[in-house]
């Protein structure tokens, strides 16, 4: 278990457990009062004074119970909410430290499920289930002890019913473990497909595969309803058999205690109580059985949270990463996202300090992967990457990223004002600095035309903005961050002419700054003027040099150049 265990109980939760135990004991006291009433009636000793005494006792028990219950309930709720808040904050921070390689599609649903559904379930254990079980168990034990003081054989029969509880709940736990874990995994799958469905709703609608026609969502929903059905099917019979067995205690008690009463070994009042209490105890044991079964199911949530807590984190270090120079070296780098699918194979790259290096290559050849490795979003399987002569292997991702500005094709915008969206690049930036960056990024004009200018909301993930506008905001962020390394995944392919020109002008402004720039260029006009061009194919740098040098080699680059000239 992680030393910063976020599921650790707090003082309030311990207090709430003590309160529910006390409340359980007090509710058992009611049965003793009942015994006293029956006894007085039977012996015809009930007088007004006694009635007042009984009424007073019941009122006092009720009042104390109410106070303890209210206090315990508040402690449980506050304690549970505090633990779940702690878990959520912990998970939020943890997700930031988990290597990106663990964010595969299936894992997104898993993480969302853990941070929402599983944390809710765990909170439910703390605030409700745990208290109910402890209270009912305390009451059961107390009642059996009470009956033992009246007539031992009756207590033994009830104890046998309690012992039967052990194999019954063991069977139920086994079923919960098997099918509950499956149900939870399918639930995570469900969340993944719903996230995919909602984020891709526009595409689904465009192709007429929304709603019930969406096979991925419908089959995932069906799987969930099937597993829920199987889950209940496997657990209900066990519960029914157990209920029947404990139900048999009532006639058994009447028979055994009745025989003793007939022979005068047992008084009438204990006999009446012994006939009545099993009715209540049977119901109580049934409730404990149901609660413990759902407790076990909810505990799967705890295991799921733990599994995320235990995921190894990226290197966290406070070591400052501020190299004097910013040349980037790849030395014999091997890398694959998935085992067996090598993307970089013994790759060697030399990117000069404060020079413009362009990467070209076929789609899927690994150009963006090179940028991902420089940013330390992923670690190489072998080899070394150095920035300014310093290996990034033992650096934290955040330290490495502090030296890098990135402009890529997937511009993520928060549902916040345009100004704040740009400010994420440098939190301390003044409004004037933001506006200056926007002018250089060619976006000041369109921002000012928006209804509230810089205070206009970008909409969820920037859906109020066009592709070109989003690209320019991303360039403004890079300008504002002003990091010594600039990684640029140029994407002007899907823009209209006006936007393409605006983005290109913004990129030209960005490139004027003295920085180490690595650009994945899709248009040869930018590539042509680079200090160095790297041509990537088969996981390696196949050609490198300036434009003219590569044309002279007459290899892959020359072929790409000629192909573009013919368009
Ligand atoms: N997160 C990922 N998980 C698994 N495989 C990935 C991941 N990202 C990329 N790949 C795969 O790695 C290979 C290289 O991808 P990469 O994005 O680096 O290529 P690229 O040259 O930048 O392509 P493009 O020019 O089309 O953007 C591709 O086969 C791609 O499918």
Automatic annotation (TrEMBL):
Domain ABC transmembrane type-1, first and last residues per copy: 14-208
Domain ABC transporter stretches: 328-563
Top-level division of the source organism's lineage: Bacteria
Localization terms from the record: Cell membrane
InterPro entries: AAA+_ATPase (IPR003593), ABC1_TM_dom (IPR011527), ABC1_TM_sf (IPR036640), ABC_transporter-like_ATP-bd (IPR003439), ABC_transporter-like_CS (IPR017871), P-loop_NTPase (IPR027417), Type_1_exporter (IPR039421)
SUPFAM superfamilies: ABC transporter transmembrane region, P-loop containing nucleoside triphosphate hydrolases
Membrane-protein topology: Multi-pass membrane protein
Keywords from the named record: ATP-binding, Membrane, Nucleotide-binding, Transmembrane, Transmembrane helix
Pfam families hit by this protein: ABC_membrane (PF00664), ABC_tran (PF00005)
Coiled coil segments of this chain: none
Membrane-crossing segments per the record: 12-38, 50-68, 133-152, 158-176, 239-258, 270-290
Gene Ontology CC entries for this record: plasma membrane
Gene3D superfamilies xref list: ABC transporter type 1, transmembrane domain, P-loop containing nucleotide triphosphate hydrolases
Gene Ontology molecular-function annotations: ABC-type oligopeptide transporter activity; ATP binding; ATP hydrolysis activity
PANTHER family assigned: ATP-BINDING CASSETTE SUB-FAMILY B MEMBER 10, MITOCHONDRIAL, ATP-DEPENDENT PERMEASE MDL1, MITOCHONDRIAL
Protein name: ABC transporter ATP-binding protein
Species this protein is from: Lachnotalea glycerini
């Amino acid at each position: 278990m992680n030393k910063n265990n976020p599921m650790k109980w707090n003082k309030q939760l311990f207090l709430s457990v003590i309160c529910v135990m006390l409340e359980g004991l007090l509710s058992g006291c009611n049965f003793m009062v009942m015994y006293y009433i029956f006894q007085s009636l039977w012996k015809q000793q009930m007088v007004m004074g006694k009635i007042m005494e009984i009424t007073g006792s019941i009122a006092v028990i009720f009042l104390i119970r109410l106070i303890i219950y209210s206090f315990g309930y508040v402690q449980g709720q506050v304690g549970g909410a505090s633990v779940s808040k702690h878990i959520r904050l912990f998970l939020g921070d943890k997700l930031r430290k988990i290597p990106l390689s663990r964010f595969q599609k299936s894992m997104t649903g898993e993480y969302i499920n853990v941070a929402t559904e599983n944390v809710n379930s765990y909170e439910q254990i703390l605030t409700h289930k745990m208290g109910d079980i402890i209270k009912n168990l305390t009451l059961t034990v107390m009642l059996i002890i009470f009956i033992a003081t009246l007539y031992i054989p009756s207590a033994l029969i009830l104890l046998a019913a309690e012992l039967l509880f052990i194999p019954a709940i063991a069977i139920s736990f086994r079923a919960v473990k098997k099918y509950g874990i499956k149900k939870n995994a399918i639930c995570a799958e469900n969340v993944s497909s719903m996230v995919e469905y909602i984020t891709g709703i526009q595409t689904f609608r465009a192709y007429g595969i929304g709603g019930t026609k969406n096979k991925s969502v419908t089959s995932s929903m069906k799987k969930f309803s099937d597993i829920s059905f199987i889950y209940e099917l496997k657990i209900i019979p066990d519960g029914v058999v157990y209920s029947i067995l404990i139900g048999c205690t009532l006639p058994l008690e009447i028979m055994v205690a009745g025989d003793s009463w007939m022979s005068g070994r047992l008084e009438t009042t204990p006999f009446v109580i012994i006939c009545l209490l099993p009715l209540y105890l049977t119901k109580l044991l049934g409730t404990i059985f149901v609660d413990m079964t759902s407790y076990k199911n909810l505990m799967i949530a705890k295991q799921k949270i733990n599994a995320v807590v235990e995921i190894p984190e990226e290197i966290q270090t406070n070591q400052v990463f501020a190299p004097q120079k910013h040349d980037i070296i790849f030395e014999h780098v091997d890398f694959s996202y998935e085992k067996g699918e090598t993307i970089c194979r013994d790759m060697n790259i030399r990117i000069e300090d404060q020079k413009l290096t362009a990467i070209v290559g076929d789609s899927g050849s690994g150009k963006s992967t090179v940028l991902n490795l420089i940013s330390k979003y992923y670690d190489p399987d072998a080899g070394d990457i150095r920035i300014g002569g310093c290996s990034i292997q033992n650096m934290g991702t955040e330290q490495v990223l502090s030296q890098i500005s990135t402009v890529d094709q997937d511009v993520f915008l928060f549902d916040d004002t345009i100004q704040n969206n740009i400010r994420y690049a440098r939190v301390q930036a003044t409004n004037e600095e933001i506006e200056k960056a926007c002018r250089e990024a060619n976006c000041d004009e369109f921002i000012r035309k928006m209804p509230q200018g810089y205070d206009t909301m970008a909409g969820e993930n920037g859906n109020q903005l066009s592709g070109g506008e989003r690209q320019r905001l991303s360039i403004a962020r890079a300008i504002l961050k002003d990091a010594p390394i600039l990684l640029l995944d140029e994407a002007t392919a899907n823009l209209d002419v006006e936007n393409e020109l605006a983005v290109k002008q913004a990129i030209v402004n960005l490139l004027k700054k003295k920085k180490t720039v690595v650009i994945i260029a899709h248009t040869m006009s930018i590539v042509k003027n680079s200090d160095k061009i790297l041509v990537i194919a088969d996981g390696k740098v196949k050609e490198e040099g300036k434009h003219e040098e590569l044309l002279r080699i007459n290899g892959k680059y020359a072929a790409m150049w000629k192909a573009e000239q013919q368009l």
